[in-house]
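Progress narrative, work stream C.
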Amino acid sequence: MISRKTIIILGGGIGGVVCANRLAKKVGNKAEIILVDKSATHIYQPSFLRVLFGERGPEQIQKPLSSLERKGIEVVQDEILKIIPENKTVKTQNRDFKYDYLIISLGAELAPEKIPGLNQAGFNLYELRGIEKLRDELRIFSGGKIAVVISSLPFKCPAAPYEAAFLLDEYFRKRNIRDKVEIGVFTPESLPLPAVGPENGKIIKSMIESRNIKFNPELNLVSVAPDKKEIIFKENKIAKFDILIFVPPHQGEKAIRESGIGNEAGWIPVDKKTLQAKYENVFAIGDAAFIALASGKPLPKAGVFAHLEAEVAADNIANDIKGINLKKEYDGQGSCFLETGFGKAGFASGKFYAEPDPQIKIRRPARIWHLGKVLFEKYWFWKWF
């Protein structure tokens, strides 16, 4: 009798949830599938901005990971301490797991503490608690300077800070106080969304500026002075704010960094087609993975990539377990919505693995793309939970 294989999935975000579901469907009782996450809850982060502007309650964008157990997936809530690929072992706070296959989908660790004063002065755009606090602050805000600050590169969901700026413009116009509010985006980037190419970046920049949102490029954040309400950039450039909304520094998760299996920033280099790391039967997907493009830039960190990479990793593991000599490859396709407010969104899609540069097409804002993003949230929970 052939013994069942053990598949460990680390992380219950988009990539981990897709991977677990797909493996449960493809390998059935041929493998034990265990998903480990320190949280008991899956939070659908693409809906954060809907919470910010009161379209959704926080409870509406969450699901318990335990609901995956009815599909034959074991869910373990535990803190991951260390990954030891030489022994095919994962250590958590409460136990050790042995695996035959490992999928690392731990996402990115947010590290606002790396910038002095940042956490004390502003609202974290990438944390649900920060979103709820900002929502409440915006409701009583009557005018002044709002700074949307990208603290460092890379960061996940590259469209999110620009979507926030567009939606803030809409929000204050509907409150009839837009003429009392200054909105600015401050970023180390030369143009918005550099992964989509300079021509598309120029289009997005013109869209931003047409809404009276100031785009401040090539600014590297050094610190924030909460008492003075000042943002300090390199070369002693200073900007004032009344409300600071920030994208925090990102790094690889602590378990990856302390296991020595990632690069200097804690991201795990993988084969761009198979998502295989340098260790046997170890795959890294989504934000945790590092994939270098032909242009020299890394593949952006976004949910769409986690989703598609999860499908490839899951299919290759399933084929290996079933003895099927077939390798599925990720082709670098990707897409994302860009909310622009007033019931419209843009849509970017294309080939990120194209050489010498990604071939990305941006479709102008339209109601159909906004509706598509809204409906996708409903589809997501129906499909995977």
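Work stream C, second folded protein:
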Amino acid sequence: MTQESAAKGRLRAQVAGALLRGDFTLSSGKKSSYYLDGKMITLHGAGLHDLATVLLEMIGEDPIEAVGGLTLGADPIAAGVAALSAAKPRARGPIHAFIVRKEAKKHGTTRWLEGPPLRAGALVAAVDDVITTGAATIAAIERIREAGATVKRAFCLVDREEGGCEALAGLGVALEPVFSIREFL
């Protein structure tokens, strides 16, 4: 078994442990009988390491220069991928991280994106922990495009399969989830 497949196996167990049952209201406003607390994984050292390992395997030698997405779900993922990419160099060099703010910074630079500046035309990947309708990732993609970068790919830990994949496809970006929720229900 390769390190990457071992990481995905450990990640699968962590996702199963982060799946909560009950009555929940999602960020989309939808009601749900389950909630996947992605932060239990992305803010856990081993969980983040395994997720970053799997995402780097998925990215491979694709010329992705940076990863990021809307704060807060994307922040640890982007930072984890960037850190691990420096430790496991690719021929194309390390991947940088960036954060898309929910609103423009009101002081200093007044930027929407934080992190090393993205060059015009930079190929990037949008990331998030859990995608339902895709609204957060769509908001991030719009800001990334306004900054002049090109969103080549989108990744998430778990796709809840409630329209997010189709919404991103409407923007010309394919969603590549590590897992789909049906694997756990």
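The first helix runs from residue 3 to 18. No further action is required on this item.
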